[in-house]
Amino acid sequence: QVQLVESGGGSVQAGGSLRLSCAASGRTFSHHAMGWFRQAPGKEREFVAGINYRGDTSFYVDSVKGRFTISRDNAKNTLYLEMNSLKPEDTAVYYCAADSLLYGVYVISSNLRHAAFGSWGQGTQVTVSS
To answer: Which residues are within 8 A (CB) of 14 and not within 5 positions of it... i.e. 6 or more apart?
Structure first.
């Protein structure tokens, strides 16, 4: 298992940008597909974006496509989520998670949203005001 710690959340106005980071401990970060999830008050946690272990396949939910970019730096054991053109409906606690499967390639990128995410961070709050 990897231990995950998110950072970079904050409060911004609509149209603004934030960059979330997820620092991983352990030697196997580069072996796991990773994902970003979010949970708004009163709503279920939802998948936002995922990336395979090599970083060459990614998938986004429609609501963030074209605005958010997921990336990873395996040398730094860090996952990122660049969020641009933020909207009030993006307000949520954002979590990073690691796939329990090692070396998952996910040729069909949409399968990333169904990965067996087994390790989770504590979350970071993102608040977007109108």
So the answer is: 86, 87, 88, 128, 129, 130
pLDDT in tens, 63-95: 999 999 999 999 999 999 999 999 999 999 999
DSSP code at position 71:
E
Token pair belonging to 61: 């939910």
Does the pLDDT value for residue 47 go beyond 90? yes
The pLDDT, as a whole number, for residue 104 is 84
Placement of tokens 């090692």 in the chain: 102
CB atoms within 10 A of CB 42: 5
Nearest 5 degrees, angle CA 118-CA 65-CA 104?
A: 35
Cβ distance 45 to 33 under 8 Å?
Answer: no
Provide DSSP, 64-105.
TTTTEEEEEETTTTEEEEEE-S--GGG-EEEEEEEEEEET--
Q: What gap in Å lies between CA 97 and CA 129, rounded to an integer?
A: 26
